[in-house]
């Protein structure tokens, strides 16, 4: 049975594969263009708190199943212009797991695939805003 809200059931290998797909996508000209256009259309204002937006978030997270679907990856309807804090919350709160020691103390955070996605998006955006060498 399909549980859309449940565990994705991705193996470690699949997750690695997904990150590779995501990286290719974030490096694509189409994404750089669309994300920049979208951010500009929102005047780089965070859609959640009104702060300074630095990242273009996919409301429906990218997966190997939708990475080639421009209706998901490049549609303004699926994008959200967010500041670092709001984007962090989106991915951290929903997906990361606290790592506890045997006494129940939090000793770290196990990052989710979504958090990896977030880091890639930040990296790619830094590249976008860092230089303007596109024709
Ligand atoms: Zn915000
Ligand atoms: Zn995001």
Task: Give a concise summary.
This protein is an alpha+beta fold and 135 residues long. It contains five helices and four strands. Helix content is 46%, strand content 13%.
What does this structure look like?
This protein has 135 residues and is α+β, with helices and mostly antiparallel strands. It has a domain at 12-93. Helix content is 46%, strand content 13%. It contains 5 helices and 4 strands. The strands form 2 sheets. It has a two-stranded antiparallel sheet. The protein has a two-stranded antiparallel ribbon with strand order 3-4. A hairpin with a 5-residue loop joins strand 3 (97-100) and strand 4. Helix 1 (12-26) runs parallel beside helix 5. It is globular and about 50 Å long. Mean pLDDT is 80; it is low at 1-7. The protein binds zinc ion (2 copies). One zinc ion (ZN) binds at residues 46, 48-49, 51, 82-83, 85-86. The site of one zinc ion has 7 residues, from strand 1, helix 4 and helix 5.
Radius of gyration: 16 Å
Summarize the main sheet.
Answer: 2 strands, antiparallel
The small molecules bound here are:
zinc ion
How many strands appear in the DSSP assignment?
4
**Shape, principal axes of CA atoms:** globular
Strand order of the largest sheet: 1-2
Strand portion: 5-15%
Q: Structural class of the helices, strands and pairings?
A: alpha+beta
Q: SSE order, as H and E?
A: HHEHEHEEH
- Classify the helix fraction into a percent range: 40-55%
């Amino acid at each position: 049975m399909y549980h859309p809200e449940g565990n994705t059931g991705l193996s470690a290998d699949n997750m690695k594969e997904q990150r590779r797909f995501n990286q290719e996508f974030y490096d694509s000209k189409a994404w750089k263009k669309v994300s920049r256009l979208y951010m500009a259309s929102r005047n780089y204002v965070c859609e959640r708190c009104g702060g300074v937006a630095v990242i273009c978030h996919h409301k429906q997270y990218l997966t190997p199943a939708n990475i080639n679907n421009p209706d998901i990856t490049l549609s303004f309807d699926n994008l959200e212009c967010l500041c670092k804090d709001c984007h962090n919350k989106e991915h951290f709160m929903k997906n990361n797991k606290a790592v506890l020691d045997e006494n129940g103390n939090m000793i770290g955070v196990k990052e989710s695939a979504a958090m990896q996605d977030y880091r890639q998006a930040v990296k790619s955006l830094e590249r976008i805003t860092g230089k303007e060498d596109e024709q």
